[in-house]
Amino acid sequence: MDVTVDLNVNGRSTTVTTDPDRPLLDVLREDLGLTGTKYGCGEGQCRTCTVLVDGRPVTSCLMTVSRAAGRKIVTIEGLAREGGLHPVQEAFLSEGAMQCGYCVPGMILNAAALLETNPDPSDEQIVEWMNGNLCRCCGYPKIVAAVRRAAAAGALSRRGER
Ligand code: FES
Ligand code: FES
User: Fold this and answer.
1) Other CB atoms closer than 10 Å to residue 21's CB: what's the count?
2) Fewest Cβ atoms nearer than 10 Å: which of 63, 131, 140, 145?
3) How far is the CA of 100 from the centre of ligand 2 (A)?
4) Domains of the chain (ranges plus CATH)?
């Protein structure tokens, strides 16, 4: 039976009437038109569908829409701020850290979550944190370089040098 679910997505409140057990991923893509969140495996194995829920990376294929109710959801469409790209988005562009691009929204959101909790990660920490996000194009070296670049840009910004 369908229920009404209150969602907060990218800073906006919205309501959907749906099966409460539907994956958040499906609701984002099909009901809200936020197709930047990608379907990969549907089983929690690839993290292509990563979104942020209350600031933490979550595989939206495994989270039911009812569990997302009332929590702050950020998709790739909502990551840019103050009219500019998020530093991680800028870094992915600068490093050319994408081939087909399919994994990139999930990669960027996961990297943004890393830098929120650890603004100056080592390469080992970057690899460990990003380890579950699969890239079928095997663009991992540039992805790690992009996260490193975003971290460095954040350090400069904190020192007032940028
Ligand atoms: S589509 Fe969600 S983890 Fe693969
Ligand atoms: S860039 Fe193609 S899957 Fe990662």
Assistant:
1) 10
2) 131
3) 5
4) 3-78 (3.10.20.30), 87-158 (1.10.150.120)
Does the CB atom of residue 135 touch ligand 1 within 6 A? no
Q: Which ligand is nearest to the CA of 102?
A: 2
Residue whose token pair is 């194009």? 137
How does pLDDT run across 23-68, given as a tens digit for each residue? 999 999 999 999 999 999 999 999 999 999 999 999 999 999 999 9
Q: How far is CA 21 from the centre of its chain?
A: 22
d(CA 59, CA 147): 20
CB of 135 sitting under 6 A from ligand 2: yes
Query: With left for phi above 0 and alpha for psi between -120 and 50, is residue 54 left, alpha or beta?
Result: left
Predicted TM-score of the model (pTM): 0.95
Give the span between the Cα atoms of 101 and 103, in whole angstroms.
Answer: 6
End-to-end CA distance of the chain: 53
